[in-house]
Amino acid sequence: MTRRFTGTVNIDIRDSEPDWAPFEPAKAPDGAPNVVYIVLDDVGFAAMSCYGGPIETPNIDRVAAGGVRYTQWHTTALCSPTRSCLLTGRNHTRNSMACITEAAIGFPNASGTIPPANGMLSEILGERGWNTYMVGKWHLCPDDEMNVASTRRNWPSGRGFERSYGFLGAETNQWYPELFYDNHPVEPPDSPENGYHFSVDITDKALEFISDAKAIAPDKPFFLYYAPGAAHAPHHAPKEWADKYAGRFDMGYEAMREITIARQKELGIVPPDARLPGLNPIGTNETRTGPDGLPFPAMDETRPWDSLSEDEQQLFTRMAEVYAGFLSHADHQIGRLLDYLEQSGERENTIVVVVSDNGASGEGGPHGSVNEMKFMNGIPDDMAQNLAMLEELGGPATYNHYPNGWAMAFNTPFKMWKRYEFNGGTCDPCIISWPAGSAARGELRGQYHHAVDIVPTILDALGVEVPDQIKGHEQSDLDGVSMRYSLDDAAAPTTRRTQFYSMLGSRAIWHDGWKAITNHPTVSGWGHFNDDEWELYHTDVDPGELHNLAAEEPAKVRELTALWFAEAGRNQAFPLDDRSPMEIIMTPRPVLAAPRERYVYFPDSAEVPESQAVNVRNRSFAVGALVDLPEPGAEGVIFAQGSRFGGHALYVKERRLHYVNNIVGLLEQKVDATEDLPTGSDQILSASFVKDGQDERGMATGILTLYHGETAVGSDRISTQVGKFSIAGEGLSVGRDTGAPVTADYPGVAPWAFRGGRINRVRVDVSGQPYLDLEREAVAMLMRE
Fold first, then answer.
1. How much is the pLDDT for 93?
2. Which residues of the chain have pLDDT under 50?
3. 278 vs 136: CA distance, rounded Å
4. Rounded (10°) CA dihedral 217, 219, 223, 228
5. Residues 14 and 8 sit within 8 Å (Cβ to Cβ)
6. Which residues partner with 587 through β-bridges?
7. If DSSP codes are grouped into helix, strand and coil, which group holds residue 542?
8. What is the pLDDT of residue 749?
9. What is the pLDDT of residue 1?
10. Do the beta carbons of residue 395 and residue 80 sit within 8 Å?
């Protein structure tokens, strides 16, 4: 609270009395603890060793050994919505985060923009004297604000974080991430060839941020939001980390579930009589159709392990090994953070919270993928091609995701996965350790809680009240309740009575140990919500949601259904949206600049995200560069858009102009000039594609011609990609190829910047209306969850 000036002001300073209090920055109370959030991504309830899982996480286990693990802690079932809860203490729909930010629909429940009335913990603590840092995944600003021309109101810096470093969207390539640093985009400091990995990089930055401030103000506490990309797809891990798990998943996901539940019983994580649900607990294409005859979503079916071929089992097993290596590698970086806190003497008085933002991901579908961009472009996976990439899985040459059978295994003992309001989507790891503030060590807690409860818990521990206003905005009431009571009292009843859930058509309500939930499949397009069947579970004794008691307790079903509608109204949860991916992606959304027929780009500018860049898909286009070439010998990238998993580039190599169009990493179509480059000022080098047809897959076909000025110097027939070049990141750049290079033809390591001449500007001309394969782009959007 700002203090009124109480000094004395006269004409002469000699007759005046100063009062510094109104002008001094806030100071946290002496001895105030630090706070560290460690927010994992798509890590299911049963992945980590301290929850009975098969993946070694010795450093997260260190946190658990110094605190408590919750067995009934819940999320929203999706990342952006949960992260909004973790930072505001309000339910996701009140945060306008009914879905991921890229799926905003322009209603108060789903705009992708958290209202300023719902202040974040970073905003509260920053105004109370804590340093505030964010590293890793943000995913809390709408798609049209994830670029350098946008407002920064929803970037970390706009929501109370003094320093930040990471990526803004749902996912990124862990070897070639799309990075921002504070308020501007930057390129990775090194390459994977030199050992670069995103998890290492953000840990370096976290330690840098903390130590920079501690050198000046060693007693000032900090709040660190540490959010690695692990273990969201793509599952990228150093090979030696994946190799540590060689052979450990050979038994398959069904057998792994049995092994895991046995461990969980030994640890007391689940009741002794807990059992596993079936592999397809809510239906398949063969068993269920929607009210209008719509099919059950194929991506949500799981194939029995014994129905797989030997090659499929070999591939799926390696996918699990890579995922495990990815999470273990991230755990190792968490260990570096913990080591720093211990060596600096900060660990004892640091509250460490470790959570996952939702259950394990089923977005890999029944088959998984070596390169998700194939699926996004309607190109079926080929087993021979996938097996050829077996040794490359997890490396820079792949963009991989495991099949959904492993999601079931890593969510043991629960049903389903991320996106669903069954416990497989919402019941997640939560570990809290505060050595100086709690005597609990290595204990379990069974109280029912939710992501909205973390902010009240932290504020309770710090003795900080929610302010009436933040930056002039009146603050709304919190939905969360403090969990602090449970840290040292395992027997205390939960202070949470009710929790509301809604995600992509899946709905649930928990109240006093009972849960009502619809078995409505997500993103199915089924609609008809009033016709939904509500199931009933006594989750205090049946956490796996196996025993549907709806027929035995119809009054309880009516009570909870009515309560859901009351809570949905209070939390502005409407309209409900279970539309198909195609319909969701067709939703009109704000854009910074309307599509145009001519785009001009300049060298040394920030990379342009694909969503804000020229769209050349399935249309004629021309890429022309105005360059100065004072003498022979110029080389390097002139223009690049996309990556090795899909993109195109114009470049100079060995005195010749070249163009490559890479279709999802499967086919590099290269067109070479037949003449050496001219020299002189104001030379125009260009590549022109004239569409003359379309193949059965929807790919445009035509002739690509290279030009020096008006002189054609080479041509060939090519096809162009149907869908987006990338799921997230990997945009357009001039004078270099940032990220994963479009082609392996570059002689040097990317970005292989242009040299020996000067690029003045690049113009991209397009004509006609852009063709959008809406189904492909919709699936791409949903894979960004």
1. 98
2. 769-779, 781-785
3. 36
4. 80
5. no
6. none
7. coil
8. 78
9. 59
10. no
